[in-house]
Amino acid sequence: MTITALASRLETAICEVGPDQAEIACAVMHRAFVEYLARGAESGATRETTETLRAEMVRSTRVALVVQGQAVVGMVKFAVDEPTQTLYFSRLSVAPEARGAGVATRILDWLRERALGEGLAGLSCSVRASEARNRAIYEHLGMVVVARSTHVSLTGAVIDSLRMVDLPLCARSAC
Question: Angle at the Cα of 61 (from 113 to 159), degrees rounded to 5?
Answer without folding.
Answer: 100
